[in-house]
Amino acid sequence: MRRLTLPAAAGLALLAGCSAFKPGVEVTALVGSALSDVCNQTAERLTRDQQRLADGTVIGLRCRAMGSGDVVTEVVEAARAVHNGSRSADDPTIPTLISLDGDLEQDQLQYLVQQIAPNADWIPSTTDSPAFASSPMVLMTTADLADGLNDLENPYTALTTASTHRELAPGSAALPIRFVHTAPTRSNSGLQTLVSQYVAVSGKPAERLTLADVRANTGKVKAIQSKITRYGASTGGLAKAMVQNGPFWASIASVYESSVVASNRSRPAGQSPYVAIYPKATFTSTMRLILPTGPWVSEQEREAVQVLSDYMLKPAVQELVADIGLRPANSAVTASQILPSNGVDPKARYEALRSPRPEVVQAMIQAWLVAAKKSSRVALVVDSSGSMQGAKLAAVQSSLMRYLSQIGVNDTVALIDFDSRIQKPVVVDGSDAGQQRGQAFLSGLKADGGTHLHDAVLAGRNWLKQTGKQEEILAVVVLTDGRDQGSTTTLSTLQEELRRSGFEGDDRIAVFSVGYGDAGAFDASTLQALADGNGGDYLQGTPDTIRSLLNNLQLSF
User: Crossing angle, helix 103-116 and helix 358-367, to 10 degrees?
Assistant: First the structure.
């Protein structure tokens, strides 16, 4: 399988139109996260334009969006289930239109589905799938650091040895290089970044890379990965975090060109603009309209998808593509946001990287997981106060069981149970003994007592200061359904302590907070402040969503 972690099942679903609109045939679209807004806007527009089949049947569109790696996993699992008879080919939730955020992912999807049905061509090749939009992979940095990166023959090769921007260019600031990109296991931009690094350090074209090249160059890729601040599930989310937290948090991000556009359009007044650096060889990130031909696609649906694809290449929809900073496939439509004022180059020239053989890409993912990825150490602080009783605690226990089962081979998690007391950390890793300790911890959780939230967060931070290493991603993750009651640590004292161990110093300990349960029961403003002030994210979850929330959060580490 391409993915060594299970996908988040969550995605945005939208039924085209209002309750009065009742299409005769509905296209189920599953798209990469870059096209989420465009797909939903297209669905709304379709209610007005009412595209029809040759017999007059009205076409509707339902969209879901998720990371491209998750799209690949979901389609592969659906194809396998239909092939072995465990799922009906008439299941309307199986996508009849697919789009991925780059050709690399489509090649992976085609390869994996062909392994299920070798004699069938259920997923067309990239050459048989019309382009819809594109957004080349770039390195995003601040304007004052851009010249040093622009002058480099190969930025990724330079990142194997340089530790400061001054080492990249003598005229640059002596700022440590801090790098971010998404996790290649589930994100297209992360996977393209990883492949680009192997291409750069090997000195070979992507399509000529071999399994031996992966083995020979993983050490150099690991050197690049050592500069990572953290990973993530969302390319746009990392770009926003970079804008919010500044260059001491991350000075370089590997993102889509459209993420630079969005960052400059939303950055606070007075903040230095961001600039896209186009490597001499990079991925174009062509987003195509993929029309599967598997047995789950009926003849009527196939016709509907073809009509819809033609519609989506017309100027009205292609202008939606341009509005969010993507490059439209229809050459008659101007890429209206690809402007120097948005930090990007409308005339950018680069060599478009091709895909390595699928088995080589699989080897890169595996090498990243076991050898190249920056290791992490996370203090997972879990509220087990009396208000957590019932379904809330059960959902957390189940979700954390899955979280712990996916700990990387070089990663460490300390589980800290708190209510009115702060329990000693239970250290879990990927070993059998570590997993047994984690299971014992979860089965022993009981909901009672109060909520010494401040004391618990500080305990997690202190454990990281005592045990953490500079070569690790360090983070506190606190999950609570309540407000602090009875801590000896005041909020102001906690915030000052976290500031001292944050990204302005050497510890670089992040804080991620999860408000759990009914809104209003937990102190959202405090949880938000703890995350915003310490380079993390604030999230809200319920018993229904906590599993996917934690699954996505884990990609940061």
Answer: 100
